[in-house]
Design a protein that fits this description.
mainly alpha; elongated; about 80 residues; about 0% strand
């Protein structure tokens, strides 16, 4: 059951990240390369986990949402 919830959470997060990264890519931000590289890393992380290279653990479940939240908080003004 936890695997299904984790997969659904990851799909929602990846969709949100892709949307925000497209907005940053279209903007004239000075930090565009850093934002895109960190965002791509955050997108690949759950994909690697779902493929089985990284096992799902409580640490991942607790740290990944915090990392996503901080990333989205820091780039909220980059698309303006």
């Amino acid at each position: 059951m936890i695997r299904v919830l984790l997969a659904a959470f990851n799909v929602a997060i990846v969709t949100l990240l892709v949307y925000r990264l497209v907005q940053v890519y279209r903007s004239y931000s000075t930090n565009k390369s850093w934002i895109l590289s960190i965002g791509i890393f955050l997108i690949l992380l759950p994909s690697v986990m779902l493929l089985g290279f990284i096992r799902p653990s409580m640490i991942y479940i607790l740290i990944y949402p915090v990392a996503i939240g901080l990333f989205l908080f820091f780039i909220k003004d980059e698309t303006a």
